[in-house]
């Protein structure tokens, strides 16, 4: 049975799980305090001697302070599925926000994105600082290079956060192979996206494959598995959480694709940016597949330019609600794909194909599947009520969101 | 007493240390085998599923196969100053070559460099692949983005190499704080260089400060200290190696600055590239300080353009002999600094100031100081003959090289 986004049915589901309902906000608060502290200490330690250090530290602190912390929460939830609360665990998974910051900051450079988390992207802010200082040389080039370096620092600090979390060595050793695989998967996934970007429009299977391998795994499944493995979970529990993670990760990214076309400024990015950036997301590709020939031709003319060979990058990268897969106006692909896109016309065409409703159904199927998994695991004692409640709440939060 | 580069005096010094004289080549051979194996395995594990994976794996394997492996050697030498041979140690320090690959690949993107280690830079090769494939979109942009990602992978794999070296946890735990500090220092140093790049010509003290903090520390001192600390060296030995590392690191980078002006193609880069890229290296800044007013004015006119406010980036980045601190022709700074530089005229002017001879003297002072430290440590039993011999050989190799 399909879950329509925003229905009261899902929201009631959340209310039923009162014992853990306050968790996400509490975890978020603790993770935020921890990440902010790491950035403050690391900047004081390493960045203080550099010209512009105060500005740079401020940019980083602001950036990490505005995330949703989904990856930390799923890491911690995976841990709690198999072990009691631990300040060390929370510190280790807080590091996942720095890993995410690394990915977003560098992806935004590669994509030429302008807005992220409701602010100019990091490289845009750094370019602005360069201009304000009246420095010589290219401000844009400086902004991009400096942002890549800040991303590198976040990648290093992320791993340090895990190693210095205070968790015992044997706990960390259960996590490292998964952590390393996740990091390589992340970089290779972005590489695959760059290659896709430069190719023709993929079909829906291809989009879903990239979506799973990249954003879905990285947002939900891998953090859950990492946390559970570190807590010493058995194979059965790891499989359960992995299956939940695959379904909710896909739901998360498909919702992201809907918001990229129909979302408002609440996403922290420009409305309709997936359209203006001509991204071949699940929604757009599905719309083309569902469309009558005449509608498809109009859609292609609107989105792909006359030669039908415009950049069709997957939109499956780094979904984060207010921080997702942005490729803002003014990028290479937008510049090279032809003139500006008529967003209203493209929205109407996509709506007319039924693709939006179909994506909502696909999301609903995944949420229902994940909730059934959780219910089954509670029934036979594999999951405690508190963790199950938060997994249910997070499933809905990922799938049914406006930002 | 000054050591002139290339004198027989130094070469005889090397011959005297025959017991360890074969070490550098033997260590290099073992490090090469290890790094090549890591790249092959990681690519097979993570990159194989991506379009272009064979090309990418080949580019990386070729790149890491062409280094001088100075950082691995100094790491291993630091280890051997306090502990016996260990395959695990060699594996851990081999990872330093991947860390160096990360830095060089990303720096070359930032600097717009064209040549590295006698080949087109990684981003240039990737852009060429994009063109050969007939892909849409900007090939240059693709090359830069893909190179940044390959750099990221090297950064991750470097740390994995150390963690998975097989060294006991307590050994690694002695290394991690230094390893993390070195990584942050590396990224922050490059950031400082970007800021310098956009400012006016620094004075010699400033150049020497950046030179020490960046290339010198990272090439010699930090790897030596890392290895020694992991091997359990006491404070006295750490201080000795740190002092040696500071002196030889400075000598290494000053030699690099001489090669950047007077070197041949043996450096793996274009001859005279520091001039065409208008870099404010130790040699160039010293030449300005030593020059008569008339000569200085001509030098400024040649190197800085008419407004004397051209880009004056420090040349202290990532020295690596055949792989150093490149900012090749056709970069932003070269484009923005005015027309092409008359390399022959600039060389003659610099030579006429006596700056080249003075830099050779400064290098010689440092090599002599380092050799005295080593001799003293052998005399009172703090260093074994074999390690001392290789430290002497490496001092000369770093200071007195043509590539």
UniProtKB/TrEMBL annotation, chains A, B:
Protein name: (2E,6E)-farnesyl diphosphate synthase
Keywords: Magnesium, Metal-binding, Transferase
Basic and acidic residues bias: start-end ranges: 325-335
Bias (Gly residues) ranges: 308-322
InterPro entries found in the cross-reference section: Isoprenoid_synthase_dom_sf, Polyprenyl_synt, Polyprenyl_synt_CS
E.C. designation(s): 2.5.1.10
GO biological process, one term: isoprenoid biosynthetic process
Enzyme category, top tier: transferase
Location of the region described as Disordered in the Swiss-Prot/TrEMBL record: 308-340
Family listed: Belongs to the FPP/GGPP synthase family.
Molecular-function GO terms, alphabetical: (2E,6E)-farnesyl diphosphate synthase activity; metal ion binding
PROSITE patterns associated with the record: POLYPRENYL_SYNTHASE_1, POLYPRENYL_SYNTHASE_2
Cofactor: Mg(2+)
Pfam families: polyprenyl_synt
């Amino acid at each position: 049975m399909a879950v329509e986004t925003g229905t009261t049915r899902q929201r009631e589901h959340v209310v039923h799980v009162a014992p853990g309902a306050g968790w996400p906000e509490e975890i978020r608060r603790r993770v935020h305090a921890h990440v902010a502290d790491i950035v403050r200490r690391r900047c004081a330690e390493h960045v203080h001697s550099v010209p512009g250090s105060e500005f740079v530290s401020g940019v980083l602190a602001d950036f990490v302070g505005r995330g949703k912390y989904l990856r930390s929460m799923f890491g911690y939830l995976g841990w709690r599925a198999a072990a009691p609360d631990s300040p060390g665990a929370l510190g280790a998974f807080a590091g996942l926000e720095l890993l995410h910051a690394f990915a977003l900051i560098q992806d935004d450079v590669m994509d030429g994105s302008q807005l992220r988390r409701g602010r100019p992207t990091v490289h845009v802010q750094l370019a602005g600082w360069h201009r304000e200082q009246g420095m010589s040389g290219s401000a844009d080039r400086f902004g991009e290079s400096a942002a890549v370096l800040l991303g590198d620092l976040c990648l290093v600090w992320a791993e340090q956060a895990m190693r210095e979390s205070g968790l015992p060595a044997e706990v960390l050793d259960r996590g490292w192979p998964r952590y390393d695989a996740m990091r390589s998967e992340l970089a290779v996934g972005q590489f695959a996206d760059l290659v896709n970007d430069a190719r023709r429009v993929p079909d829906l299977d291809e989009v879903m494959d990239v979506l799973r391998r990249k954003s879905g795994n990285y947002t939900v499944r891998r953090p859950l598995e990492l946390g559970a493995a570190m807590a010493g979970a058995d194979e059965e529990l790891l499989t359960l959480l992995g299956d939940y993670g695959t379904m909710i990760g896909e739901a998360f990214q498909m919702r992201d694709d809907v918001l990229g076309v129909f979302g408002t400024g609440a996403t922290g990015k420009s409305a309709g940016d997936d359209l203006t950036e001509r991204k071949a997301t699940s929604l757009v590709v599905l719309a083309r597949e569902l469309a009558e020939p005449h509608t498809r031709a109009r859609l292609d003319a609107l989105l792909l330019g006359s030669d039908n060979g415009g950049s069709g990058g997957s939109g499956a990268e780094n979904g984060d609600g207010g921080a997702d897969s942005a490729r803002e106006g003014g990028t290479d692909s937008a510049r090279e794909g032809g003139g500006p896109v008529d967003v209203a016309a493209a929205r109407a065409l996509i709506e007319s194909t039924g693709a939006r409703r179909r994506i909502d159904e696909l999301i609903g199927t995944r949420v229902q599947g994940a909730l059934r998994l959780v219910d089954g695991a509670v029934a036979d004692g594999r999951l405690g009520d508190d963790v199950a409640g938060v997994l249910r709440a997070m499933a809905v939060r990922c799938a049914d969101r406006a930002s």
